[in-house]
Amino acid sequence: MSTPERNSRLQKLKSLREKGINPYPNRFTPEDYSADILEKFKDDAPEMNVKIAGRVMLVRNFGKAGFCTIKDSKGTIQVYGSKEELGENFNVFKKLDAGDIIGASGILFRTQKGEITVNVKDFQILAKAIMPLPEKFHGLTDTEMRYRQRYTDLIVNDEIKDSFLIRAQIIRSIREQLNAKDFIEVETPVLQQIPGGANARPFETYHNALKIPLFLRIAPELYLKRLIVGGMEKVYELSRVFRNEGISTRHNPEFTLLEVYQAYSDFNGMLELTEELVNNIAKQVSGSEEIEYQGKKYSFKCPFKRMTLTDAVKEYAGIDITKYKEDAQSLLKDFHKKLAELKDKNDDVEDKPETANDNVNFWKVVNDIFEVLVEDKLEGPIFITHYPSETSALAKQDPEAPEYVERFELFISGREHANAYSELNDPVKQKENFEKQVKAKASGDDEAMYMDEDYVNALEMGMPPTGGLGIGIDRLVMMFIDSPSIRDTILFPQMKPKKPMQPEKWKNVIDAINKVSNKFTELAVIQSLKQNGVEATQEVIDEIMDKTSKKEKYNLINTLVTSILEEPGGSTISDKLNKVMKELSSEQDLNKTDFLKKIKSIIE
RNA sequence: GGGCCGCUAGCUCAGCUGGUAGAGCAACGCCCUUUUAAGGCGUGGGUCGAUGGUUCGAACCCAUCGCGGCUCACCA
Questions:
Q1: Which of helix, strand or coil describes residue A413?
Q2: Span CA (A565) to C1' (B18), Å
Q3: Distance in angstroms: CA A443, C1' B1
Q4: Looking at residues A233-248, what average pLDDT do you find?
Q5: What is the CATH number of the domain that holds A63?
Q6: Residue–nucleotide distance: A47 CA to B40 C1' (Å)
């Protein structure tokens, strides 16, 4: 990209080099940081030498002196450079641009307005910035560019860095808490031959040497439980998982998942662990058990509320599923009736989910009711417990009520944040469940699980009763940075690539036209060719190009355009232009002269 | 994938019922040794997301496409 700003900075770069100054020197070691300096000097210590480095954010220059605001990792500090102190070097100081990175040393003083400032005795450019910084007052607000160019976003929007500091704090807190409980952090394969542990579509890749397809993991679950089998009784993995699904404010194709497994525990143990983890994070990160998220207050005081799924459906959807004796059809009918009622009152209610086929399963309907009518009402934090066995292929059944599994999900602000269960360790039952999943996959369910024989084999070796837990870290971070979008918790969220603006074959033609500026010129060139021939037109173009002022260019062009419009038949010019463009689109390497000749031959 | 909204200078944004593209910041030149988004005077900078169409004339109207945001669906 070529802009005046960029060009002038490239020019400055050149002139620095001509003066024998390296604009990208190899090292400079700062000894002081802005925030520390401001703290130490706040009582005006007698005399303090400091050595700092950072990015020039603002420049306020006078004739023989100037101020710059410098930003380093800890904050900002003002520096003052004067001809008196810097001598020859002041000419370099004067030319500093916002965005440059400099190293400076000097003595602290207070300005007339009272700001602690470094009076620079010596400084050097550490990295010359070629691209200008976004606007100093409004910063960068364009969401697209903030995600695509996170580096620029981080430079100018301080709160972004704070968000990621909070993210780091949360992750550190989790590690510290689990490590303190003697959990072992492990790393299991990201590239898996059989993706498992969740109902989701995986990304597929290929290993050249082994000549086999591999999948990016959708969860580490099955590997972690193999470790439990192996006798590692308390393990966790805090890592990225990948799901080939839509992108939204709540979904990124790769996200960070904490999974914890503990032998001789169960879903109740995991529930208490979850409460404790989240409660401590709240206290450590926001200094309080109460936080505010998107204008609503949430309390992470233990214990969190808990409710069975059946009760939640009764309370929030007004449907008592125990009365249906697993009759899917009549439950479905009442569900749709409920939806219709709500729709009458409020247009926002979504349409009926597509469960209305013949062999509809009772528990699938329950699940739908929960998702459609209950989930978003769960402000929480609240644990929803006892999910249908039907929808939980890796969880252990409740011995009292085998249609349910010992499982909970933690909801906050209508979103699922954690999922845990007593792990199914019966290899025969597990194999049956897998087989059901395989059948579902065969009949078109992309998210159904694969058969994992080796995992069944692991269970056949004997896995102790175990509790397992998964927590979505990105969503948790959303709560604590008070952001409605998961993208604000991910440094480089996935974005669609920008397509090139023009097809390759048009490039030469477009370039040639661009050389003589804009649309008006295209018309002018064509008309001139018609009237004056190639050589005369070439002259006109050269004349136009020689004018440095854009205004002068326009005047010349306008004169030509006006003469076109005065002519009868002038309106067919654009038809001709279209014809020309079509013809030329097949041409490959045209220089300007050939381009003009070609146009002439087409017109005549 | 559907719906709604957006895309104008490096950045933040104006641009009326279609009539030769604007401001502030940034840049460039000059002045200025205590500024705080410094100030003053002057100058340059645009494929108005792209491509077609309507029109004497399009940033503006229409169509298609691209990218983004929100939202619904999908999905945890």
A1: coil
A2: 18
A3: 22
A4: 90
A5: 2.40.50.140
A6: 36
Q: Summarize pLDDT for A197-227 with one digit per residue, the tens.
A: 888 888 888 888 888 889 999 999 999 999 9
CA A58 to C1' B14, whole Å: 26
Q: Which domain holds residue A11?
A: 4-133
Nearest nucleotide (C1') to the CA of residue A62? B32
Contact positions of strand B to protein Cβ (< 7 A): 1, 6, 9-13, 20, 24-28, 31-39, 43-50, 52-53, 55-57, 66-76
Tell me the CB-side half-sphere exposure of residue A292, using CA atoms within 13 A. Answer: 3
Residue closest to sugar C1' of B27 by CA: A5
Which residue minimizes Cα–C1' distance to B49? A501
Question: Does ipTM surpass 0.95 in this model?
Answer: no
Nearby residues of A294 by Cβ (< 8 Å), 6 or more positions away: A413, A482, A484
Please identify, among A133, A149, A172, the residue that sits at the C-terminal boundary of a domain: A133
Query: A555: Cβ–Cβ under 8 A, 6 or more apart, which residues?
Result: none
Domain boundary residue, one of A133, A163, A182: A133
Helices A267-286 and A473-481 meet at what angle, rounded to 10? 40
**Does residue A78 form part of some domain?**
yes
In angstroms, the Cα distances linking A241 to A22, A408, A470, A486 are 44, 21, 12, 15
Determine the distance between A4 (CA) and B44 (C1') in angstroms. Answer: 9
B25 C1' – A126 CA distance, angstroms? Answer: 25
Report yes or no on A480 lying in a domain. no
Spatial contact of A78 and A68, defined as CB atoms under 8 Å apart: yes
Q: Which residue is nearest to nucleotide B43 (CA to C1')?
A: A549
Lowest-confidence region among A290-304, A486-500, A586-600: A586-600
Using one digit for the tens of pLDDT, what is the confidence trace for A381-411?
999 999 888 888 899 999 988 888 999 999 9
* Number of structural domains in chain A: 2
Measured CA to C1', what is the nucleotide nearest A2? B10
Residue A482 belongs to some domain of the structure:
no
**Does A320 reside within a domain?**
no
